[in-house]
# Entry
Amino acid sequence: MTNENSILSAIEPELADTIVQGRRDVFAKYAKAAGIMTSAPLVLALASNQAFGQSLPKVIEDTLNFALTLEYLEAAFYDMGNKSGVVPSQYRSVFRTIGAHENAHVKLLKSVLGSAAVAAPGVDFTAGGKFADVWENFDTFLTLSQTFEDLGVAAYKGQAGNLIGSAEVLTVALQIHSVEARHASEVRRIGLKFGWDGAFDKPLSKSAVLAAATPFLA
Amino acid sequence: MTNESSLSRRHLLKWTGAGATIAVAGAFLPNFGISAALGAELGEGDIGVLNYAYALEQLEAAFYTQVLETPFTSMQVNDERILRQIRDHEIAHRDFLKGALGRNAIPALEVDFSAVDFSSRASVLGTADVFENLGVAAYNGAGQLISNADYLVAAGSIVSIEARHAAAIADLLKPFSAEAVGRGNVDSKGLDKALLPSKVLKAAAPFIVTPVTAATLP
# Structure
């Protein structure tokens, strides 16, 4: 678990800025625009599973593509991890279920975004060799899993303000957000920790999330 | 996990500051919580949603307080340390919301846990499972009713903790299971539940003696 601190320490210093400044910037910038948006295309997209991506407001499109990028990353991580044999048998049910959820999130977000959906990024879960044993050492795998799940929770939370005024999209984002939190809790538990860190979860800005995720994008 | 970071404190202080703003704004609004003897009307707009959350957190805090005061037969160390943390979180959520609402807060609710057998681990954890999952669905469904971005992030910072609790309780009931990462609550699209206040209040009603009404919430 020694790697964990190095990853998280890369995130932590940015939290203060995120909370104080990130919210102010992001919300000031987008809240007004989001407030006047109609979410009708999304209602249709969600109901019919058809792609109405081109008619999505830009801020919603950007936010959902950001979420989709993280979901691609998570889905790839569990697809590779579950095939690699790194997961001990007693935890396979947990990680298969998490993997199925992440793939479902990818599918859902792609269906909402339609032709506006970004392509899946290339991935490198060794982060250039820093986590070279990720598919052999369960501790390393677990460290990265917790990082991605906690990051996902903070990322969705940080973007929620962009979706005010688009009730259906916001609700779907919240419905994904709490699933990521369930994952994070159980992954921490498997790592012999509490499932949380305090009574309130912190949001992270888009830039802080991308900074944490970038080492794993090839 | 034992030490709350200074960041969290700052975060809280900031929210409490936001709460002071509501209290001031509330001076121009009817004081919905005044008629304690007649019950609790949650109120409208963001205040109504915050009171709704406050009602649920009161219920949860009271439940876990009772759980720790009258521990079930042969409570294991692991059960206790997790339940104790959850209790502390629910109290922190309750007090945070009360502070944010100021004079607009509904009164303390009288609860009824006569349906719970506090001497039974299965009864206690089964009830905890219901409360945590109800809380997750409630916050997920209420997000779209919040118009202030700061309150939305605050609600988001609570709901993911509730989801982490739900996973921890599910893990205590069935360690390292698919249920511990959401099976039973998460659908085939990878989405958690989202319920509107009317449904949640109906589900919570058997545990709350004080009549709670939400005339303007859906």
In short: Residues 1-36 of chain B have pLDDT under 50 and may be disordered.
